[in-house]
Amino acid sequence: MALCSRFAISIAAGLLAGAAAVTPAVADDGWEAEGDLGTTSQEDWGGDGGDWGDQQFTRGRVTASTLLLRSAPNRGSQVIRTAHQGEIVRIFCQWVGESVQGNNRWYLLADGTWAWGSAQFIETRRSPRWC
Predict the structure, then answer these.
(1) Residue 73 belongs to a domain
(2) For the chain, what is the domain count?
(3) Is residue 127 domain-resident?
(4) N or C: which end of the chain has fewer CB within 10 A?
(5) Per-residue CA distances from 2 to 5, 6, 37, 63, 85 (Å)
């Protein structure tokens, strides 16, 4: 991995650590995992994405039967946990990482632990902010 990419990831990780210190991630925020995305109000999907300081998240739904969530935005990194089809996740930001079935975007999720999931398998109503 190029030095610039490692540096950018290090900066993003530092910013995320600061955000986590102020606002702890929550695994269950009251969303029903079985609900239909089409019936969820716009309020439930969070604000406009804003900047680093506003602590807003984008909502997403896992479309894979089992999605491996990883320590870095690539398939070779450590698996931290799994998410299952229909699960609602909180997306902090997106990043360009290893391509998965032609999609190189990865989402940094904040559901109890910070972990990366391939955007190929997470449906969203709007694009998350960039890390």
Answers:
(1) yes
(2) 1
(3) yes
(4) N
(5) 5, 6, 38, 31, 34
Could you read off the pLDDT of 60-93 as tens digits, one per residue? Answer: 999 999 999 999 999 999 999 999 999 999 999 9
On whether residue 130 sits in a domain, the answer given is yes
Q: How many angstroms separate the CA atoms of 55 and 25, rounded?
A: 10
pLDDT beneath 70: ranges in the chain: 1-55
In a domain? residue 48? no
CATH number at residue 106: 2.30.30.40
CA angle 28/91/102 to nearest 5° reads: 130
Nearest to 118 by CA among 70, 57, 49, 46: 70
Q: Which two tokens stand for residue 25?
A: 């991630």
